């Protein structure tokens, strides 16, 4: 019965969400720079992720829906912070004393999240707030929780996971995949594998023509992870630009730039001379201008449906950057 009532309330609220998105389009048409963030399928704007839609719906939802959202988000945050305590978590940038203090602080935070999550069943007073810079804050009884990943570079993954889990029980238009979902599906399809040969540089290659070449065989796990992250973000660029083109939006290839998104926002892909842009999570490419610019021929080929090969000569320093250097949310 609750699920049925939820679907009814969601259907009505879906009109509210659509109206707010349409209003946003009208404003963007007048103001510059213009940002495409909604659903291309309906001919208006680029839809990168489901998370903003889920948050928009939940801001207007009833107490039962908001409580379920909070339970899901807190459960996923607990899992993310617990993963940080695993022995293989990268802690090279912490000293022994700092590392011990960090682990104790992380455990305490996990216990606090567990207590807050357990209290939701008693239906304490609850509010959900979207901050001006986009972060979501939950007020549960006398407690407050910011929906944030342990590492800023993992914030996008946490948001995708929250949206995915919420969509299993509540409103989501599953007929058309978002840009991020298309890319993640493609990543799963093409996979990746090492290619070694005598006296040759190690190569990690995917099935769609992208491959990373490294100077030597040291720290191959770090290098593989750096390659996977960079390749995924290059695919994000390609898929977003393909979607814009399919929607009749002109792209000025000479004006392409990746910039800081400002406090609380992911990075910006600027794609016209008058600085129209779309927000997307590409923290690694923000630090690798040469890498993504050298991939533009592959990206342009992808946009027009051609398959070509591209070799990414991945600098070692990108594999060794500290986690704090790869922030998803950086200030100007």
Q: pLDDT under 50 segments (min length 5)?
A: 1-44, 322-332
User: Tell me about the biggest sheet?
Assistant: 4 strands, mixed
How far the N terminus sits from the C terminus, by CA atoms, comes to 49 Å
| Tally of individual helices | 11
Query: Overall pLDDT, averaged?
Result: 77
**Strand order across the biggest sheet?**
4-5-6-10
Shape: globular
**What letter string, H or E per element, gives the SSE order?**
HHHHEEEHHEEEHEEEHHHEH
How many E strands?
Answer: 10
Radius of gyration over alpha carbons?
A: 21 Å
Strand content: 5-15%
Class from helix and strand fractions: alpha+beta
Q: Helical amount among residues, as a percent range?
A: 40-55%
Number of domains: 2
Describe the structure.
With 332 residues, the protein is α+β, with helices and mostly antiparallel strands. The chain is built from 11 helices and 10 strands. The protein has helices at residues 2-30, 51-59, 63-84, 96-119, 155-166, 179-190, 220-246, 283-286, 289-294, 296-303, 316-320; strands spanning 126-130, 136-140, 143-146, 193-195, 203-205, 210-213, 257-259, 267-270, 277-280, 310-313. The strands form 3 sheets. It has a 4-stranded mixed sheet with strand order 4-5-6-10, with helices on one face. Strands 1-2-3 form a 3-stranded antiparallel sheet, with helices on one face. A 3-stranded antiparallel sheet has the order 7-8-9.
């Amino acid at each position: 019965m609750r699920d049925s009532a939820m679907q009814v309330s969601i259907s009505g609220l879906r009109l509210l969400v659509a109206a707010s998105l349409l209003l946003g389009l009208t404003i963007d048409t007048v103001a510059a720079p213009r940002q495409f963030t909604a659903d291309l399928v309906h001919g208006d704007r680029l839809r990168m992720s489901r998370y903003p839609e889920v948050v928009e719906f939940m801001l207007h939802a009833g107490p039962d829906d908001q409580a379920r959202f909070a339970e899901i988000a807190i459960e996923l945050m607990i899992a993310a912070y617990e993963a940080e305590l695993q022995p293989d978590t990268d802690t090279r940038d912490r000293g022994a004393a700092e590392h011990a203090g960090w682990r104790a602080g992380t455990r305490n935070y996990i216990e606090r999240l567990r207590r807050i999550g357990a209290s939701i069943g008693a239906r304490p007073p609850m509010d959900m707030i979207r901050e001006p810079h986009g972060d979501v804050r939950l007020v549960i009884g006398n407690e407050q929780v910011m929906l944030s990943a342990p590492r800023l570079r993992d914030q996008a993954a946490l948001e995708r996971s929250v949206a995915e889990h919420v969509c299993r029980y509540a409103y989501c238009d599953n007929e058309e995949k978002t840009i991020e979902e298309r890319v993640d599906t493609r990543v799963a399809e093409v996979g990746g594998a090492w290619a070694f040969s005598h006296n040759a540089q190690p190569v990690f290659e995917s099935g769609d023509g992208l491959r990373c070449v490294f100077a030597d065989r040291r720290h191959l796990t770090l290098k593989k992870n750096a390659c996977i992250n960079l390749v995924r973000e290059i695919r994000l660029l390609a898929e977003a630009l393909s979607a814009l083109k399919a929607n009749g939006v002109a792209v000025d290839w000479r004006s392409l730039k990746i910039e800081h998104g400002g406090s609380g926002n992911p990075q910006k892909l600027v794609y016209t001379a008058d600085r129209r842009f779309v927000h997307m999570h590409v923290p690694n490419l923000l630090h690798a201008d040469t890498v993504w610019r050298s991939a533009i021929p592959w990206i342009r080929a992808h946009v027009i449906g051609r398959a070509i090969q591209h070799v990414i000569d991945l600098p070692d320093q990108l594999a060794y950057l500290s986690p704090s250097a790869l922030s998803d949310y950086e200030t100007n």
